[in-house]
Amino acid sequence: MRVSELSRASGVSVPTIKYYLREGLLPFGAASTAPNQADYADTHVHRLRLIRVLTQLGGLSIAATRDVLAAIDDPRLPVPDLLGVVQRAMAPARGADPQARADVDRYLRRRRWTVPPDAPGRDALARALAALRDLGRDVGADVFAPYADLADQLARREVATIPANAARAEAVEAMVVGTVVFEAAFSALRRLAHARHAARRFR
Amino acid sequence: MRVSELSRASGVSVPTIKYYLREGLLPFGAASTAPNQADYADTHVHRLRLIRVLTQLGGLSIAATRDVLAAIDDPRLPVPDLLGVVQRAMAPARGADPQARADVDRYLRRRRWTVPPDAPGRDALARALAALRDLGRDVGADVFAPYADLADQLARREVATIPANAARAEAVEAMVVGTVVFEAAFSALRRLAHARHAARRFR
To answer: Is A52 within 8 Å of B134 when comparing Cβ atoms?
Structure first.
């Protein structure tokens, strides 16, 4: 299909498609001499939708989206490493209070969670712990225990839904979708549940 | 204390403190003729830490932070309404596909979740549903059922930890902290758990 048809099929405007082509987020169509003449396929439509999910729902920048797509396209990258790329793209490294980080690391060891030392979740959790202490709560990392139990339950189920013999492309997309879409969904549901329980308790 | 001492006690720079004063995020100190002469109290230190949590951990803009603080300071605002303000500040209204939104509304009715029609979580969940369909998955809102179960369990526990006879200020802060800090913590834990389970499954 031509770029105008690609735009109609994907709901992404032609200028935005050209921008993605220039930025290397979208591969050029077949026999492309100019974007308008190139022949685009269904894979392009799907790629545009994936870009939309990453940028709009996941809040990823164009640069972070490009990193994720490059990792998806790299057949040598093992699937768990791809997960690290997606996680880093969604939550860029920002560091954390060293004491809180040491407490988080000790807590994860005690729970026997084997996670790479540079997994971005470690600093993210340490920032949450430091915030609680900043606000005057005298708490250790075990304040997160009920959350860790539920998160572990959820993640185990999510990873298990990916067939072990899935094609790489399928496993990879399931992982990206799981990280971005279901995180947004869970956060929405938790807020809805807060609204419902708070209304019951305080009215 | 003077503004320089307030800066040391809070870890927030003097120019940033003056910016917050100008923007109405931080009340002026007692007998204030100029920020440097005013007398600041421990409540100012605490307020600065709360601002830091909202902006850095919650990712709120200055305008959204001001909305949340104004709601906290308004003694006439019932606590569940405050929750709506915090939720809207964290996830500004963006609309959603009408079909997905109708499906979400129907799903919440079927689960008997009584939630205001303008609760921002409805559109946020509808956007997640629309994203799944966009990516070619033929799913209904019940794809979120396991997430809804866990979110409900978590929210019920979180709301219950707020003493029913808590002072308003205490209840309010617990709610803000619960929304912002524990959401960040849960998201970090889910990603850590993904890393751990994916490594087991794919290596």
So the answer is: yes
